[in-house]
């Protein structure tokens, strides 16, 4: 089964109406998931997950507590997917807009997704450098040469969530 999660900070009261719109418009059963508040992480909690310069090439960007909290929120969603016995989850951030064509895009992705797949729904142009994996003439699932860093809307399979959780126990960049 597939479910949806809308990641939202508890203290972000101004975004609650948007979260409610997403929950109402989402074409699959969807629930709000409390985000990890990076600003509330203790030094010990940060040190447990974040290790500057862990991988090469070195991360050229400065550490952002907000980005780390956002990344940990996605890890929370992946874990909820596993704990719930789901085959996949649609993970949405609370600032997305689900346009009328989203249901058809999601239906296409659900039809072609394979175990282990991770799909980002992009509102921005990803450029011309990609390989088409599947297309129905209206929608295309593509593999970009350079993956966009934006994760506003993603479809994560169970196997992908397992792999993502395993490989992100320590990070040097969200």
List keywords for this structure.
single chain, 174 residues, 33% helix, 5-stranded mixed β-sheet, alpha/beta, 5 helices, two-stranded antiparallel ribbon
Could you please describe the fold and organization of this structure?
- With 174 residues, the protein is of the alpha/beta class.
- It contains five helices and seven strands, in the order E-H-E-H-H-E-H-E-E-E-E-H.
- The chain has helices at residues 16-25, 43-49, 65-83, 102-112, 158-167, and strands at residues 2-8, 30-34, 88-93, 118-120, 130-135, 140-144, 153-157.
- The chain has a five-stranded mixed beta sheet with strand order 2-1-3-7-4, sandwiched between helices. The chain has a two-stranded antiparallel ribbon with strand order 5-6.
- Strand 1 (2-8), helix 1 (16-25) and strand 2 form a beta-alpha-beta unit.
- The model has no long low-confidence stretch (mean pLDDT 90).
Unreliable spans = none
Task: State the order of secondary-structure elements, H for helix, E for strand.
Answer: EHEHHEHEEEEH
Strand tally, please? 7
Q: End-to-end distance, in Å?
A: 28 Å
- Averaging pLDDT over every residue, what do you get? 90
Strand order of the largest sheet: 2-1-3-7-4
Q: Give Rg in angstroms.
A: 16 Å
What is the SS-derived class?
A: alpha/beta
Task: Give me a quick take on this structure.
It is built from 5 helices and 7 strands; from the N terminus they run E-H-E-H-H-E-H-E-E-E-E-H. The chain is α/β, with parallel strands linked by helices and 174 residues long.
